[in-house]
Amino acid sequence: xxxxxxxxxxxxxxxxxxxxxxxxxxxxxxxxxxxxxxxxxxxxxxxxxxxxxxxxxxxxxxxxxxxxxxxxxxxxxxxxxxxxxxxxxxxxxxxxxxxxxxxxxxxxxxxxxxxxxxxxxxxxxxxxxxxxxxxxxxxxxxxxxxxxxxxxxxxxxxxxxxxxxxxxxxxxxxxxxxxxxxxxxxxxxxxxxxxxxxxxxxxxxxxxxxxxxxxxxxxxxxxxxxxxxxxxxxxxxxxxxxxxxxxxxxxxxxxxxxxxxxxxxxxxxxxxxxxxxxxxxxxxxxxxxxxxxxxxxxxxxxxxxxxxxxxxxxxxxxxx
Amino acid sequence: xxxxxxxxxxxxxxxxxxxxxxxxxxxxxxxxxxxxxxxxxxxxxxxxxxxxxxxxxxxxxxxxxxxxxxxxxxxxxxxxxxxxxxxxxxxxxxxxxxxxxxxxxxxxxxxxxxxxxxxxxxxxxxxxxxxxxxxxxxxxxxxxxxxxxxxxxxxxxxxxxxxxxxxxxxxxxxxxxxxxxxxxxxxxxxxxxxxxxxxxxxxxxxxxxxxxxxxxxxxxxxxxxxxxxxxxxxxxxxxxxxxxxxxxxxxxxxxxxxxxxxxxxxxxxxxxxxxxxxxxxxxxxxxxxxxxxxxxxxxxxxxxxxxxxxxxxxxxxxxx
Lengths: 320, 320
Known about the structure:
2 domains, 5-stranded mixed sheet, Nucleotidyltransferase, domain 5
């Protein structure tokens, strides 16, 4: 048997078939190349058709299909909302895949849910029942596994941790991102750097430029490696917020593990011991002593592995 | 059929039998009167024996028993930790009740879990699958229902929301309580008032006293009603923190309802609209638009009703 996993990103589509033990059997990927709306749906259903027929030829038929989507999978109306895919406000992806799936069970999960499922199946949280993936990239989100179940909330929008309130008073500029994301996402790091530069007119280092639009997350990380004083201040502030957010997750969820991932972790992985130290100050002391903070083991493949595990879990649920 | 619910508090023990529809059939309560360790266990098992035999006489036999405990019920080793009951670091309450229970299924839940179960069964969150009870009293804790299940965490200590980090930097004085509880629990309100009095030597109002130990939560509430400037400042700060905490719960859990309860709500109930307003600024906007913030409908009975519902749920689970 094979599990067909599909990971839809903002710019590319990846697919893999897995054995039930989490071993990759085949892999494929294709760029979206500006496709939108039904064109993206067509790309996915073509890929599904191709993968199903290939697996059939290999005499290893696919028993379940799952898709990781960059947004929200609404389990009540089976529609997908994906802000970075044009015309996917309420896209009937499940129906489209089922139409070509020949009766194979299909499930669709948000990317953040897939990240933690992937790490629990074959990554840094292997075997955990209570674990959280904190994804810090362009945006910030959390995939939360509680008692072996994905936390969805009443409208499938649980885990919106970018909106965490970590320092009063409220400022209008947090409005489109949430306070935590405003300062500590990839873009947030740049915003924080700009604020600090503005407050330090005397600073003449590498991050000062006549054109402030050239500032990037990568540049702030590079300056940090070179011990630039503003970059050091930026990450000191980020570590404090990341640590508080981790502590808040620990106190509320009492998880076995929290996994830091996304584009920023990545380069921020060496900061994990300091984030842990900050979290330990704030969190419920027993929970904080018992949890493990780790970097993602699967990196950019977390969503794909997570879709594989979502397919397996759905298959097992139906078998019972 | 009857469900036997027992609510163990720090100073008293309450019991009720419920019909499966949540109607109280009998009620009883007894003071702990300084009992500790096995004496408290004996009080509970005597009450169970008495209630079982009474129900038997009425030809309405008890089919399930549940106890709400003021602490943690560890489902892995079946021991109870209750910090306010002397010698209950790891108390074998389940075993003791089962020994007198004649084979009737017994379940033990933390008080905060029972609060939300009670409100979901017969109170302000009736019928919800995703709802949270924020209990603000001497301490602060949250009972969390997610997807119809109580959130327990890896070690049954989920919901320790008193430890929420809401304003950096960390201060050593938060160590024994957590930052959120340090300032906004019943005792926290007094602490916050003392800090503000210290910062305002010019203030000569009703909260100023030669003996600062006479300050109480009740006095701060009374001064607030009389528009005292320090008390107004205290609750302005509390509303900001309560609102941030509610927003953080909304962004993380996407619940249908959050119920404010405990000794402080109570007198702080009229502040709920302002807390909602503060939460609305910070939280994930769709989740915040969709959730309802309400005061407890069951007040001091929430734990008892919750134990009744825990008994019913356990009975139904076993029947299946």
